[in-house]
Amino acid sequence: MYDLVIIGAAAAGPAAAIYAIRRGLNVIIVSKDTGGEVALSGEVENWPSVIHTTGVELAKQFTDHIKHYNVPLDEGYEVTSISQEGNYHSVHAKDYAGKEKIYQTKAVIVASGIHPRELNAIHEKELKGRGITYCTVCDGPLFKGKVTATIGAGNSAVESALMMGGIAQKVYVLTKYGPDENNNGFPKAENILVKKMMATPTIEVVHYANTTEMVGDTKLTGIKYTDSKTGEEKELAVDGAMVHIGVIPNSDFIDCAQKDEGKQIKVDRLCNTSCKGIFAAGDVTDIPYKQISIAVGMGATAALSAIDYINHFEE
Ligand SMILES: Cc1cc2nc3c(=O)[nH]c(=O)nc-3n(C[C@H](O)[C@H](O)[C@H](O)COP(=O)(O)OP(=O)(O)OC[C@H]3O[C@@H](n4cnc5c(N)ncnc54)[C@H](O)[C@@H]3O)c2cc1C
After folding, report:
1. Whose CA is nearest to atom 28 of ligand 1?
2. Which of 54, 94, 113, 299 is the most buried (most CB within 10 A)?
3. Keywords, A to Z (predicted)?
């Protein structure tokens, strides 16, 4: 029987664990890996107190910190469901061989993050991190003065294009919609942002573009797409591709807590979910800003809320 099970060992999870263990809780982290999206963050230059680091290095430091406190960690376990019995929760997980393990606990912190929706374009996997990014806020500045393409038709794609419009020499924006669709081919984006984008001289919108292939051997050199109006195959020479076609929260294993239409777990400002004894922190929640410092702050908040909950726990 645990006081607290934390799901995820990237940013929010370790932050929560540090607070929980220092308060003497019987805590364990259950996670598929250590590092999560932090380790995939490339160059990190917005973690306060460190001017420049890499995602890999920062993720290692987070892991070293939980090891320093001997926080029990079951790495290589994927949580598949959480069930309730009275005020207790059972966290069901399985390892890579499919062997099941069940953790009984008073409280749970879900810090399982998100994963970006991929295009499923040819060579996308091989060129990920070699010109292809799913986070313009993080990696956009690396393409200063270069030619980039943002792929997507929602707000995050338009915001990505606007950001790159001020950094890159030239920015293509590939939307699968035509110009007659709502909002000039960006039906899910805010009109005011689209207008701003259309008025930016460095930005060129490409309509009816269905991205099919990422081109390049060791790094991205171009993008191939099909023009769905004419059926033509076309290619653009680019140094960077920002893919913004949505993210998928890692929240399928939890039924009890309310989620929004995008599967993000709804939390209040103290990281409570709608499910008693279950807290959530970081990118898996409905917080609109997906950043390491925010995930860490939410992890600490979730831990303090869980500690308060456990202190008042009724059998
Ligand atoms: C390319 C890229 C660059 C970025 N650059 C920056 C940057 O420069 N600065 C910045 O602040 N942010 C950056 N970010 C965002 C940052 O990575 C995230 O905000 C941060 O990692 C969120 O941390 P998290 O703990 O909420 O979740 P995640 O990092 O997503 O970690 C989730 C954890 O949960 C585990 N997990 C998931 N599902 C399960 C399950 N079912 N069972 C058990 N374990 C599970 C995973 O293994 C992982 O350990 C970047 C993101 C990307 C993709």
Report:
1. 113
2. 299
3. Flavoprotein, Oxidoreductase
- Residue tagged 């909950």 (tokens): 309
DSSP letter assigned to residue 154: B
| Tens-digit pLDDT string for the chain (315 aa) | 999 999 999 999 999 999 999 999 999 999 999 999 898 766 788 899 999 998 889 999 999 999 999 999 999 999 999 999 999 999 999 999 999 999 999 999 999 999 889 999 999 999 999 999 988 877 899 999 999 999 999 888 998 999 999 999 999 999 999 998 888 999 888 899 999 999 999 999 999 999 999 999 999 999 999 999 999 999 999 999 999 998 899 999 999 999 999 999 999 999 999 999 999 999 999 998 889 999 999 999 999 999 999 999 987
Q: Does 8 sit in the ligand 1 pocket, CB within 6 Å?
A: yes
Domain boundary assignment for the chain: 2-115+247-311, 118-243
- The answer to whether domain 2-115+247-311 and domain 118-243 are alike in fold is yes
What is the atom index within ligand 1 of the atom nearest the CA of 291? Answer: 19
CATH class of segment(s) 2-115+247-311? alpha beta
* Residue appearing with tokens 């939307």: 175
Q: What is the CATH number of domain 118-243?
A: 3.50.50.60
Distance CA 233, CA 207 (A): 13
Pocket test for ligand 1, best of 34, 135, 245 (most atoms within 8 A of CB): 135
Give residues with Cβ within 8 angstroms of 25, minimum separation 6.
Answer: 3, 4, 306, 307, 310
Ligand 1 atom nearest residue 114's Cα: 30
In this structure, which residue's CA is closest to atom 31 in ligand 1?
A: 36
